[in-house]
Structure formats: structure tokens, C-alpha cells
Design goal:
Elements: E1 11-15, H1 19-30, E2 35-39, H2 42-52, E3 56-60, E4 62-63, E5 66-67, H3 68-75, E6 83-88, H4 93-101, E7 106-109, H5 114-144, H6 154-167, E8 174-177, H7 184-193, E9 202-206, H8 212-220, E10 221-222, E11 235-236, H9 238-241, E12 246-250, H10 257-269, E13 271-272, E14 281-282, E15 286-291, H11 295-301, H12 306-312, E16 315-318, H13 329-344, E17 348-351, H14 353-361, H15 367-381, E18 385-387, H16 403-408, H17 420-434, H18 439-446, H19 450-459, H20 468-473
Parallel strand pairs: 1-2, 1-3, 3-6, 6-7, 8-15, 8-16, 9-12, 12-15, 17-18
Antiparallel strand pairs: 4-5, 10-11, 13-14
Bound molecules: adenosine-5'-triphosphate and magnesium ion.
Magnesium ion binds next to helix 7.
Amino acid sequence: MKNLNFPGLPRVLVVDDEEGIREGLRHLLQSEGLAVETAASAEDGIRRLQQKGADIVFLDLHLPGADGLSILPNLRVGTPPADVVVLTGYGTVANTVEAMRKGACDVVEKPFTPDRILSVVRRVLELRQLKSELSWLQDRVRELTSTELVGLSPAIRDVQTRIDQVGHAPDTTVLITGQSGTGKELVARCIHERSVRRHGPFVAINCAALTESLLEAELFGYEAGAFTGASRDGKAGLFQVAAGGTLFLDEIGEMPRALQAKLLRVLQERTFRRVGGIQDLQADVRIVASTNRNLRHEVEKGTFREDLYYRLNVMTIEVPPLAQRVQDIPLLAHFFLDQFGRQMGKSLSGFTEEAMETLCEYTWPGNVRELKNAIEHAAILCPSGMIDEIHLPDLSSGGTNGRDRIQRSVITLEAENRSIRSLEGQLVQRVLEETRWNISKAAAILGINRTTLYNKIRAYNLGQRPNRAKAVLS
Ligand SMILES: Nc1ncnc2c1ncn2[C@@H]1O[C@H](COP(=O)(O)OP(=O)(O)OP(=O)(O)O)[C@@H](O)[C@H]1O
Ligand SMILES: [Mg+2]
């Protein structure tokens, strides 16, 4: 069928007791590149649909032993369910209405022309394609605006508790701190979603992305002709746009000092003025600010106003680095794998033990964002099934006991027995100790693969591997 972007081969099932109709439709639709199954009875039709599935079913209303209308609901199965086109030799209005009521998408009277059939098929397939695109887009939007804060570690539970607490105080300013990629913006969205302000907008602005005057105009808006280039009607600022909701000031530590004073005024007075304006406008927003800097240090250095710091610091949520919540790594990894699998239309079932071990042993300086990117990388490389180590990006240099530190250190080996065998055993033992028995890292430093390393540990009867939880936490 020309100009149709249908994913895969469209499948059609024809249920009709007249052989001429079955074979005629098979011939017509197969020549259009569709996969066609036929059945001469209701039972056979249902069985074939269950076995093979279908996008479109052509259903004769007068079948031996069963009325087509009565089996119509049984044909609307599968996800998405097949679209049923009813074929009738007795095109009465009552029949048509009843067929549509039971879920048929169209009724075609016999005798029909090939063009009539092809136009019905084209319309149904186009509609199915649109519906599937729509549901894919809806999933994407849901994912992008998802406020699911994944994690069961004590550290992330504390964050969740704080979010619930501030949810009940919908006007209180909240400061979110934490390293880059820990999930500060996600926490801000969660705060918005868990408060009565969720019915209003969530508006985010990155204070580091704009120059001082642009940021001011964005935040407060401006009157007509306030400055050269200002639009004739003036413009509403984000304090106005976010009314009733939450205004997220990302990277507040980068806000120029002059603007800090203006923001302080909004927080104190709960009013603001547009650039060039004389009227005080109400600021009905909750401010959530975030920074990956230590604002106290910035205050000491004089780059951040002390009074604003105290105003913002009413409620602080510190999002811990991923390295402090290692037990969340498997949960997060599976969460992201599910997301990317769905997005890419792949069936990715999980991680091999080695891959998961590698993910848990890495220190994630880029935090959850880096983990998310690593899983996306793996999901692209892995055709289906389990993610293995080879699908992951190179994570060998990010450990606390990384290759560099050990390569530079001098390793002294005892000289009593200078056989290569003895020295090798000592070297392997030393590297294992220095990496706290992190097998992946030790293997990378020694330049051998993990299986070889395990063999050497056995061969040299090296010390027992310590309990893993201890190794990670110590
Ligand atoms: N606990 C979590 N559960 C699910 N997804 C998370 C979690 N933490 C972070 N993410 C995801 O990781 C990515 C990075 O998070 P986010 O943008 O909130 O970090 P950030 O701290 O604001 O980073 P930056 O300081 O670089 O702006 C986002 O896609 C976010 O949805
Ligand atoms: Mg952010």
C-alpha cells in the first residue's frame, strides 16, 4: 500500500463463509503488500486472531452457526485491539447501527469494489498509525515530566520525607543543594506535584543561562517601551506566568548581585514590579531555588548576598551524591532501562551480573545523570535481552581507587623469591588490596580480564574477598 508509514507488515483477517470473497480479498490485499489470513467460520476466525493477531478483521455478518454481530466483541482483543470492518449483504440501517455500537469501525455492503475495500483499509491503517504515534508521544511526555523519585536508600528516603513536609507548606521557599546531576530539578518538580500548587504551573529558569538584563526581564517582565528593543505591548515575566504555581530558580548561585537584591525584595514583600513599571504586582508563587555551589562559601567570598542566603535557607533539601546511595543504583538502572527500552522499541530484560557489578562499583562523579546516560548508551548498543559489560561505556577510570593513582604509586615486592610466579602473586594481591577487592578495577589495572583475574586468585590462593557491602561502605 503506497505512501503508508505503517510499522511492520499490516495483518488482515477475513472471516467469511463464501470462498469467492475470502480468496478475492486475499488476492487483492496481498497484492498491496499486506499479510492476509482467512477463516470460513466464526470459531476458526477467533482462533486465528488469537494465534496470529491482526490489525484489521473483515467480518461477514452471516456466518454458518453464528451471527457475525454476536462474535464481534470477541474480535476486539489484543493491544491495540483489531479494527473490525463488517461485510453485509443486507445493508439495513439497523444492522449498521448495531455493528457500530458493538465496536465495528466501518460497514461495507456486498457487492463491493476493490477501491472501496482499499480505501477502508488505508483509512484504518492511517488511524492505527496515528494512534500508536500518539500513545508513544504521550509516554514520552509522561517520562519527561515524570516526578518519580526512584530510590529506597535511607538518604533518598530522607529527601522524600522532606518533600512531603514542604508539600504541606505551599508558600515556603525551598533551597535544594547537591552536586550536578543528583536530581535537584526532579526534587523541585516533586515539591510542586506534592503541594496544592500542583494545579498551577511549574516554571523553571536557569539563572546562569542569561545576562543580567535579560534575566531581569524574564523574571519580572517589562512595560511597553521599557528599553530599546522592548516589544510594544510589554511582556509578562515568569513571576506572573507562574502565578498559582512554583517558580524554580535553577543555579541561583550564578545570579548577578544586583538581581539578588531584587529577588530579596520579592521574597520579603511578596510583590514585584515589571521593568519600567510603577505598579506593584502580587507574586503568588512558591520559589524553589537550587545550586550545586556551597552558598555559605559564596557569602564568605562576597559573591552571594548574606540576607538573600538566609531568606532562601528557610528549608533546605540536600540531595546526596549517588556514591552515598549505592543501593539505589540497581533500582535506577532498571528504571532507566525500562524507559529507554520502551522509547527504542527494544525488549531489554535486565543486566548480567557482571554489568550490574560494574555499575555498582563505579563512583558516578556525574551522579544520576551520568548513570542515566550510561544506560542509554547500553540500550543503544544492546540489540535485545540482557545488558552486558560490553554494552556499557568505559567506566574503568572513575573508581575511588582508579588506575592512575595506583599506576603512579611505587609497588615494592619482596625479593626473597624472585620467580615471576611469586612476584605475580604478590602484585595481584597488592592491587586487589588497593582496590579493596573491586574485581573490575583490579582487572583493569592489571590489564587482564576478570576471568583471568579470578583464575589467578584461585591459583595463588589469595585472601578471601571481603563482604561486598562492607567493601562498598568502608
Ligand atoms: N532519584 C531519581 N529517580 C529517577 N530519575 C532521576 C533521579 N534523580 C535524577 N534523575 C534523573 O536524572 C537526570 C538528572 O537530574 P536533574 O536534572 O534533576 O539533576 P540536577 O541535580 O538538577 O543536575 P544539574 O545540577 O546538572 O542541573 C534527570 O533526567 C532526572 O530525571
Ligand atoms: Mg538542574
